[in-house]
Amino acid sequence: MKNFFYILLVLTLTFTSCKKETLELANTEEVTLADEGLRIYGKYVLLSGEMLVTNLELNIKTSYNHFDVNKSISSLRYSGSQLEFETIEQNVTTWEFYEPNSVPGFGEFILNGDTINPMGFYVTTSNWTIVEHPTSTTASEMQLGGSSRPIEGYVEDVDQNIVVIYVQDAYESIDGYNCKYYSELRFQKIEQW
Q1: Using one digit for the tens of pLDDT, what is the confidence trace for 149-191?
Q2: Which of 72, 116, 122, 182 is deepest in the core (most CB within 10 A)?
Q3: What is the pTM assigned to this prediction?
Q4: What is the distance between the alpha carbons of residues 186 and 165, in angstroms, rounded to a whole number?
């Protein structure tokens, strides 16, 4: 037993007395959509979207349009929306991205013009994530159920400010099969800052 405590003491002293170095970010450049030159920061309106589902057991891929002539409201979740963020409406839903003070860092994400209840927008040099607002401290203030939504995108048409954003990468049992799905949403930038 004395040997155990002696070994524990030596290991503790060894690891706590090492010189620690601060890691610096190698690159703090502004992040753009797929390096196409269109800044993510601004306000976007949803034009169209589709959900892409992969049945992991049968290896079958299926695409579902979120909207058609009879349907203008849809859900990012296959089994139906549980959170306001997951409900989308064609030509009505807006997403606003506000730049953080530094990269990596937290900016703000505004859903449908709701500036009273903003969410966070965490930006690194290689990733974007919609998160709970950094000042949210209680469950009633959380709009993503304590979760986050990583997003990525590309510019479809730089002249028309059309971007495609991938979101809601999730796993779910659908008709008894294990499936993975995500949504591909087309937005048009209507304001820039």
Answers
A1: 999 999 999 899 999 999 999 999 999 999 999 999 999 999 9
A2: 122
A3: 0.80
A4: 7
